[in-house]
Amino acid sequence: CGCVEAGIEKKRGIKMLFGMPTLIEFNTIEECAELCKELNLDFIETSMSLPQYTIDSIKISKFRSIADEYGIFYTIHLDENVNFSDFNAYAADASKRYITDTVQLAKKLDVPTINMHFHRGEHFTLPDRKIDLYAVYRDRYIKSIYSFRDVCENAIGDADIKICIENCNGWPDFQKEALDILLQSPVFGLTFDIGHNHGCGNLDEAYIIENQGHLCHMHMHDALGKKNHLALGAGELDLDRYLSLAEDQKCRVVLETKTIEGLKQSVNWMRQKGRIK
Q1: 3-state secondary structure string across the chain
Q2: How confident is the model over 160-185, as pLDDT tens digits?
Q3: What Cα–Cα distance (Å) separates residue 40 from each residue in 3, 34, 37, 238?
């Protein structure tokens, strides 16, 4: 834990830390912080896909002041368009620069986790199937993974920051091979999004359970069929089982509903379980 979150753990005498995402219903980080404190949550996951949370929009002194005032900390969710393996060298270099700049931001804000999606790359659609280009040009793809790992290790250094890869729609074999390479490094970990996993037919769960020692972060929301980001208790997931997994691995847990009302319902569900006071 970083110093900020360690202080929260000590003060509240808790084992697990729960957070909320930045919400489209709020325009400012202070509005999010007010709700975060009201609901007795511990951190906010800032989405860099929103214009007010891009690197050039975040004011370090303001964010630190708000964190101190409300007794919270931040994690970061990278822009979902990041693709450091793009065959276009200009695009790949821009993604690497973006991530290294985000690491510097994380250091200044005491951010312990940078969450990111794992871009699958482009595909060719043939009459009978789709072909992933990274699978066809595997050697080039794997070379880019080693390069990315080196970039991240150099940027993070000895800082207490992990870049956690989030599951989305089922990792194909070439991405699992890439994940194996990244997870050899101490600066990488896994984020388990239980709703995404359910929506794709639980394609990622076996890999995550097999590598649960690298699990640091969880996006927790309920799901019903392919519909997810529901309030906890509003779907069909075995939430207690995933909550136990998060506790066993000492994960930070984002209650990743997308509305204020959904977040409040999820917090109430956690209160009924005795997880949040």
Answers
A1: CCHHHHHHHHHHCCCCEEEEECCCCCCCHHHHHHHHHHCCCCEEEEECCCHHHCCCCCCHHHHHHHHHHHCCEEEEECCCCCCCCCCCHHHHHHHHHHHHHHHHHHHHHCCCEEEEECCCCCEEECCCCEEEHHHHCHHHHHHHHHHHHHHHHHHHCCCCCEEEEECCCCCCHHHHHHHHHHCCCCCEEEEEEHHHHHHCCCCCHHHHHHCHHHEEEEEECEEECCEEEECCCCCCCCHHHHHHHHHHCCCEEEECCCCHHHHHHHHHHHHHCCCCC
A2: 999 999 999 999 999 999 999 999 99
A3: 19, 10, 5, 24
- Evaluate the CA torsion angle 118, 124, 127, 128 in order and state its sign: negative
Residues 67-89, mean pLDDT to the nearest whole number = 97
Note the pLDDT tens digit of each residue in 192-207: 999 999 999 999 999 9
8 pLDDT above the threshold of 60: no
C-beta atoms surrounding 224 within 10 Å:
14
Closest CA to 106 of 228, 241, 2, 218: 2
In sequence order, the 6+-apart residues with CB closer than 8 A to the CB of 24 are 50, 258
Pairing outcome for strands 113-117 and 123-125? unpaired
Q: Are 225 and 195 in contact (CB under 8 A)?
A: no
Q: Which two tokens stand for residue 95?
A: 């993604």
Identify the weakest region by mean pLDDT among 2-16, 31-45, 60-74, 217-231: 2-16
